[in-house]
Design brief:
Beta Polymerase, domain 2, cca-adding enzyme, domain 2, two-stranded antiparallel sheet, 21 helices, 49% helix, binds adenosine-5'-triphosphate, binds magnesium ion
Length: 446
């Protein structure tokens, strides 16, 4: 593959003299236009026929060059959102700060974005807050501006499906061949403009198995605390991309190594740093299972991942409340409130997920109690499956639960009669005490 990409930055390819713009013609690259979604090609055709520039850009070009399946096809153009909208009947302008257009084809949505530049005021200065975060990022720009404001060199490749030409402004092809994650421009400046780029650098390194270029790597740990400037809703979205895209374990290991995890989940991170016996295992095992589920097209939910991520803190806090004399269920409820309350200002987990997390945690207690008709009631609970999976996960990470997971696995497999036997047998350790039968008193003793 290295050889194949190597061909892309063949020195013979044309280079514009005033910038680093390299154009690769059809014989110089092996991108196959047939691999591009036909709706994206159609949009580009229509835009170009109307004298606009238009390209597919970003993740899809990168992934196709690496023989991976692109998640989606994004289009960049010099047409304004209004101009794009006029050309496509089924399209909608979305976003307030920076408008983009969604063009709909059946159930598929394609995003069309107008070339952007880093916004500058009249003095030519980029508009930023005191911390360096870009406060306005909504100016239209040229193709070159658009490439320079992207995050990574490998994400700034543009493909013209009509002319079958590939455009590289930031040596992205060279970095692809060298398997390198490199921030465009000055890394410290680009991270402070948008600290979420710290997470993006790590995410793509993990996803692609690339190394982070030393200049892009150096500021990461030092700047980790600038993630505090990213809004909590955006941070929640970013954590989903980090942990729910099929390579969560690799992402976590890099996040932990570069101290970014300390910003994302400080409560868990503290326990890991303190050498908690199962905290790190819990996160790693939960993400290993999640990666496997994603690979086999099974459903994954942020509720389960966050339940696992925060479990070591919940368990520890609940134990403290129990020591203070609270009954187990109330201690668990108080711990859940406290731990979720500390996490929400960092990643605002929507309520539907925090409710599910609380239920999964509460059921860790109810699933222990299986006598009478408790087991048959628990199995009917809509949250049973997640709570049962959570028990298996806890056992996988080294918690000792007295064979609780196996018991529930078997309980789900057997007949109703056998279920009753299983419940009865729970008591065989301490055989049920029979009340001594009272003898009818003889009238003689009266
Ligand atoms: P994925 O396969 O995860 O979708 P992607 O590269 O397409 O990868 P997106 O988040 O969909 O990532 O973003 C699309 C493109 O927008 C990126 O390739 C990059 O060029 C640009 N981009 C996204 N986020 C940023 C950012 N924070 N700063 C600069 N450029 C960004
Ligand atoms: Mg994308």
């Amino acid at each position: 593959m290295l050889k194949r990409i190597g061909k892309f930055f063949d020195r013979s390819s044309s280079k514009n003299n005033d910038d680093n713009h390299r154009v690769l013609h059809p014989h110089e690259h092996s991108l196959n236009p047939k691999k591009i979604c036909k709706h994206a090609c159609e949009i580009i055709r229509v835009l170009q026929r109307n004298n606009f520039e238009a390209y597919v850009v970003g993740g899809c070009v990168r992934d196709l060059l690496l023989d991976l399946n692109p998640k989606d096809f994004d289009i960049a153009t010099n047409a304004t959102p209004q101009q794009v909208k006029r050309l496509f009947r089924r399209s909608r302008i979305i976003g307030r700060r920076f408008q983009i257009v969604h063009v709909q084809f059946g159930r598929e949505l394609i995003e069309v974005t107008t070339f952007r530049s880093n916004n500058t005021n009249q003095n030519g200065k980029v508009q930023q807050s005191a911390s360096g975060v870009l406060t306005r990022d909504n100016m239209f720009g040229s193709l070159l501006d658009d490439a320079s404001r992207r995050d990574l060199s490998i994400n700034a490749l543009y493909y013209d499906t009509e002319k079958n030409t590939l455009h590289d402004f930031c040596d992205g092809l060279e970095d692809l061949a060298k398997r390198k994650i490199r921030i465009i421009g000055n890394p410290a400046t680009r991270y402070s403009e948008d600290p979420a780029r710290l997470l993006r650098a790590v995410r793509f390194a993990a996803k692609l198995g690339f190394h982070i270029d030393s200049k892009s790597l150096k500021p990461i740990t030092k700047m980790a605390d600038s993630l505090q400037h990213v809004s909590a809703p955006r941070m929640f979205d970013e954590t989903l991309k980090l942990f729910m895209s099929g390579y969560g374990l690799a992402v976590f290991q890099l996040l932990y190594e570069y101290r970014l995890f300390a910003q994302l989940a400080p409560q868990t991170n503290r326990l890991i740093d303190q050498g908690h016996p199962t905290a790190k295992n819990m996160v790693e095992q939960a993400l290993t299972n999640t990666d496997l589920r994603i690979r086999s097209n099974k459903r994954v939910t942020p509720a389960f991942i966050y339940a696992a991520l925060l479990w070591p803190s919940v368990q520890k806090t609940a134990a403290e409340y129990e020591r203070q004399g609270h009954p187990a269920a109330s201690a668990m409820g108080k711990a859940a409130n406290e731990v979720i309350g500390n996490q929400i200002p960092i990643t605002s987990i929507p309520r539907r997920f925090t409710m599910a997390m609380r239920e999964i945690w509460a059921m860790q207690l109810t699933l222990v109690k299986r006598d009478g008709n408790r087991a048959s009631r628990s199995i009917e609970n809509p949250r049973f499956r997640a709570a049962y999976d959570f028990i298996l996960l806890r056992e996988q990470t080294g918690e000792s639960l007295n064979g609780l997971g196996d018991w529930w696995t078997r309980y789900q497999d057997v007949s109703e009669d056998e279920r009753q036997n299983m419940v009865q047998k729970l008591n065989t350790g301490k055989p049920r005490k029979r009340r001594p039968r009272r003898r009818p008193q003889s009238s003689n003793n009266a």
